[in-house]
Please model this.
Amino acid sequence: MPGVYIHIPFCRQACHYCNFHFSASLKYKDDFLKCLLKEIKLQKDFLEPFAEKTKDNKLLLDTLYFGGGTPSILKVSELIMILRRIYEFFKLKPGAEVTLEANPDDLTMEKLMAVRQTPVNRLSIGIQSFQYADLKYLNRPHSPAQAIQSIKNAYKAGFENISADLIYGIPTLNNDKWQENLLTLINLEVPHISAYCLTVEPKTPLNIFIKRGQAEQVNENHAGDQFEMMIKILEKHRYEHYEISNFGKPGYFSKHNLSYWKNIPYLGLGPSAHSYNSKIRQWNVNNTKEYISRIEKNILPCEKETISTQKGFNEYIMTSLRTYWGCNKNKINREFGSKFLKHLEKEASSHLKNGLLIEENDNIKLSAKGKLLADKIASDLFV
Model:
């Protein structure tokens, strides 16, 4: 069943590594919110062929995700306003997952208690690190103490489904401190952990600082060591490594992110948001001012492409190979044809022999060694 993603393009300050679309100014926030409500109506039919309908003609959703940017920067009244608009055209099925991404410094008890009265039932908290040196390197706005308190506050407010983000491979983060970060979340009993390797993206402040010699470069071997450490530590504590960057206790996998990896249709709203419905992929303009201008003229702020069989196959390989289910040979034969299945078997053979891939019950998956080379292996399997 499909989901909806809403991009809130505002942050209190710019993290040095971030290349997502955001603004550290709230100048356009009110205009953006008006246009977001309008876009929900303009885009409401995108998922129609792929979603069940209720008796009152609303589309059923399995997930709703507020991402960004920093969605927790919104007032709770603004969040409720968006939710009410969503409910005009969509309905959440029983047990639907509603996620709010949040920064620790936003999660006061007062804010959390108010959010808890909304349909939001899952928090994704951007911790990144519990070390002062790392937070300074990344230019994060919170302190280690705020990070810990935000999780404690979330539990006190009644949230159970909590995810925390960490970053590894930071030059200021040694292996002992990395282990400390992981054990802090484990001891706080956070049931879902997303961990990402620090990547130096073009045009980010971090990239500029490194080129000027003002910040230390990321070391791939250092990051690889911490990736392997993370797998051992989290699996020892019974977290399931169900996707390259995600670990969860049973029952706490991210339903929304799984829709991306399993090619389930989703609608993206807000500037820079992407949408997918198995036949078409579309992406909104990556500029808040332009987004507002187009919506005010009743123009959809997006470009579209039809997904060819070849592109669909490559996307399936790329996303499914990241998960511990892997890519299914029967699905490939059924949805893409025998030609693509033969291609996969041919290109995968060398990786199966050298132990980077394994095959179980017609599923081709990454081995423990292969997880370190996931992107390279996926590209080798593309048509």
About this structure: Residues 220-236 form the longest helix (17 residues). The longest strand covers residues 90-102. The two ends are 29 Å apart (CA to CA).
